[in-house]
Amino acid sequence: MTIKEIKQAVDDGKAVQWKHAAYQVIKDKHGQYLIHCLLNDNYINLTNRGGDTLNGIPSDFRLYNH
Q1: Once rounded to an integer, what is the mean pLDDT over residues 28-52?
Q2: Would you tell me how many other CB atoms lie within 10 Å of the CB of residue 47?
Q3: Which of 34, 45, 52, 53 has minimal CB crowding within 10 Å?
């Protein structure tokens, strides 16, 4: 998935995961897109600081049913 596709899916209320269901892409109350690890409750930005490169391989992001 591209950055645009991921953000649109999250904005549309769809569940997006990175690698597996323990890593969920969320949008926080400040409008930031983050990857949330449910295993240890840590968060990282979806993209680099410039917002143009994913923090992960695009093919590792997918929609899932939660």
Answers
A1: 96
A2: 19
A3: 52
Give pLDDT, residue 65: 83
Enter the tokens of residue 31: 């409008």
Assessment of whether the complete model's pTM goes beyond 0.70: yes
Residue 62: which of 3, 7, 4, 19 has the closest Cα? 19
Share of the chain above pLDDT 70, in %: 98
Question: SS3 letters for the chain?
Answer: CCHHHHHHHHHCCCCEEECEEEEEEEECCCCCEEEEECCCCEEEECECCCCCCECCCHHHEEECCC
